[in-house]
Amino acid sequence: EVQLVESGGGLVQPGRSLRLSCAASGFTFDDYAMHWVRQAPGKGLEWVSGISWNSGSIGYADSVKGRFTISRDSAKNSLYLQMNSLRAEDTALYYCAKVAAARTVYNWFDPWGQGTLVTVSS
Amino acid sequence: DIQMTQSPSSLSASVGDRVTITCRASQGISNYLAWFQQKPGKAPKSLIYAASSFQSGVPSKFSGSGSGTDFTLTITSLQPEDFATYYCQQYYSYPMTFGQGTRLEIK
Predict the structure, then answer these.
(1) pLDDT value of position A84
(2) Residue B31, CA distances (Å) to B20, B24, B68 in order
(3) Nearest-CB residue to A106 (from B1, B38, B92)
(4) Which of A22, A62, A69, B63 is the Cys-Cys partner for A79 at CB 3.0 to 4.6 Å?
(5) Contact residues, chain B, for A111 at CB < 8 Å
């Protein structure tokens, strides 16, 4: 069974940094692109960033470009999101998601993790 | 960036009804469109991919159609468990984008 477990969320002051992790199991991590999607309280879904299976293709939402960095570690079967210069508007539940098909960049998301909450406030 | 416009933003319907949600892309995305269902406090769940293909385990009451810029999600014979929020998403190019969501409520 595929499992995605996010961690690293918490309360952080504006301007500070936080690193989110997503531990993956139940599939060959090296074969699948991965994504981060966030959802502010009471709001809709916002795609944040994605990374291909070999880290050769990476994308960011305009709202986080230059502040967030996505990466992956095949030895640890983990996906990361380094978030710098955090703002109040980054407050959200952050989900990681696996794409459905192996070795494709542009593919739908299935499944999703349960999310980790990031709150940016002084 | 490709903008995804979903309508309506909310919809009130009764058990047994058939409803249709539309999603329009600001430029052509072929069939690189997915639909998700989200219930309160839960992660989104994939329903439809490639505009009209069923995700495994999803009942046939959910169907998708469209290509290019205009897409629809139709749900037939609404049951209480279908009342949720639905999102479309394009995965044609970065940045990938979601529609703003359609909240389906019981009348």
Answers:
(1) 98
(2) 18, 12, 6
(3) B92
(4) A22
(5) 43, 45-46
Could you report the per-residue pLDDT of A77-91, keeping only the tens digit for each? 999 999 999 999 999
Distances (CA, A) of A19 to A76, A82, B15: 15, 4, 44
Check the CA dihedral B45-A29-A39-B68 and report its sign.
Answer: negative
Q: Which residues of A41-55 are buried (b: 16+ CB within 10 A; e: fewer)?
A: eeebbbbbbbbbbee
Interface contact A108-B89, CB threshold 8 A? yes
**B87 contacts A45? CB cut-off 8 A:** yes
Full 3-state SS string of B42-60: CCCEEEEECCCEECCCCCC
Q: What pLDDT digit, counting tens, does each position of B36-67 carry?
A: 999 999 999 999 999 999 888 999 999 999 99
Up-side HSE of residue B56: CA atoms within 13 Å toward CB? 4
Write out the two tokens for B49: 């991919």
> Following DSSP, what letter does each residue of A6-38 receive, concatenated?
EE--EEE-TT--EEEEEEEESS-GGG--EEEEE
